[in-house]
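Researcher: We plan to redesign the surface later, but first we want a full-length starting point. Tokens attached.
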């Protein structure tokens, strides 16, 4: 297997611009690869971590392990707000991926992920910097998705009957 070739430090910002473009072009695998290259040089680069997290969550429809990889990045984000906000993004995108597959029980699973997203966005709202309503925007989007999809509901509680015999 050939070795990875390291980027030069002075090209990292340009590489991150390319990663963002690849995300916009719906090529999250390419964006993620670029971010991993940047993180080899600057392991705590916040822009690279966020872009990688977003690129991984854009792959959730096809690869469930991307969610675990995205969650693994959360503790590396330096701010509590960022950790809460991007945890919400992960849950929201997972809900959308589940909805897109539309399998049996997907409405229940998507509902649960949207509820978790709302919890995270609520935490982010309390921590948000002045002038930053991003968590509120995401919250409202989740509420609208819940309101507009009748198949989204909590899973019925399992009832077990006790035998008297």
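Model: Full-length starting sequence:
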């Amino acid at each position: 297997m050939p070795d990875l070739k390291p980027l030069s430090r002075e090209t990292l910002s340009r590489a991150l611009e390319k990663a963002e473009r690849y995300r916009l072009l719906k090529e999250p695998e390419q964006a993620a690869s670029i971010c991993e290259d940047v993180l080899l040089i600057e392991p705590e680069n916040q822009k690279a971590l966020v872009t990688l997290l977003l690129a991984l969550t854009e792959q959730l429809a096809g690869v469930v392990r991307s969610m675990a990889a995205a969650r693994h990045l959360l503790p590396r984000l330096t701010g509590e707000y960022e950790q809460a906000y991007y945890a919400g993004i992960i849950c929201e995108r997972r809900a959308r991926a589940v909805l897109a597959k539309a399998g049996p029980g997907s409405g229940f699973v998507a509902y649960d992920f949207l509820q978790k997203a709302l919890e995270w966005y609520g935490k982010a709202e309390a921590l948000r910097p002045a002038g930053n309503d991003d968590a509120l925007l995401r919250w409202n989007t989740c509420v609208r998705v819940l309101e507009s999809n009748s198949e989204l509901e909590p899973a019925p509680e399992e009832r077990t009957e006790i035998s008297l015999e």
